[in-house]
Design goal:
Blueprint (H helix, E strand, L loop, with lengths): L3 H17 L5 H14 L7 E4 L6 E4 L3 E6 L4 E6 L3 E7 L11 E7 L8 E6 L5 H15 L2
Antiparallel strand pairs: 1-2, 2-3, 3-4, 5-6, 6-7
Helix pairs in contact: 1-2
Length: 143
Amino acid sequence: MQTDEATTNLCIQEFLDDISKLNLSYAYSQWYNVDVASLISDTNILGHEIDDSTGAALIFLDRSVMFCCPNSGKIHHYPKHLLHCFVDDKRGQTEINDTLFRAELFSISPKDEQLCWEKCCNSEIDIPNLQSKVSNWIGWLNR
């Protein structure tokens, strides 16, 4: 049976392993492996998501979420009670731009501090994966 500390370390290592799979610059990789890793060293991570295109990450904690942005070098922390989920399903509509299904986890916070974690898909094949992500978000929000 794993201890709480071992479980915490495993979750942190899984996050850092997923970050290492990205094609990030050395500076961004170091930022995650040194700065972000030191901030989350004793933190119980419930899950994480990574935006492969930007290298940004969302780390789900018990009562909050951390947004890590290597481009700006900023880490934002959002209490769970300030977060909301929005889903826009355009299947079956005649005028579809490109986005068929869109989900957003966003915060109610000052303008320059807002969280907008958005996931979109343009193919019906990708919708179940996105729905699974949204299910995780809603499950976490209602925990």
